[in-house]
Amino acid sequence: MRDAIALWGNTRMVVLTAICGSLYAAILIPFKVLPIIPGVTELRPANAVPVLCSLLFGPAAAWGAAIGNTIGDFFGGIGPGSLFGFAGNFLYGYLPYKLWNALRLGTPTLTRPAHLAALAGVTLLASAACAMTIGWGLNLLGFVPFTALANIILVNNALTAIVLTPFLLAAL
Fold this sequence. Notes:
Layout: H1 2-6, H2 11-28, E1 35-37, E2 41-42, H3 48-57, H4 60-76, H5 81-103, H6 113-140, H7 146-171
Antiparallel strand pairs: 1-2
């Protein structure tokens, strides 16, 4: 976690954080009109961005995902649940980077089946952490039942990122 704090002393990492956050928000905002649970979550093809940026830029993606999600909340309804959205999206952008490095797989390439399987695994774990954080928080606040929201977020995050991230990695 020190790396996520230390990045604020590195101008390049701050710029990467801003790029990740603005890209995430720019893709989130147009899809606010397609809600799954109005005011809580919507169809989110932007969910591939934090995973992609996490693998490419490390902890900058964590702050970018958290800030980008908060910016997106301004267009769909910001409230006390946005704090849990900030924390959940931070984890969603941070865990792929940490898990990928823990597996010691090096640069992600799509030519090796092990990398595709690892990408699916780290995406699923990051999606679960995000879903549990947001689901628990909004349940605690009495907004939405945990099981409904956590499952929707898990499936929405994981499916979108597992399908789109390999194509985006190949393009980049």
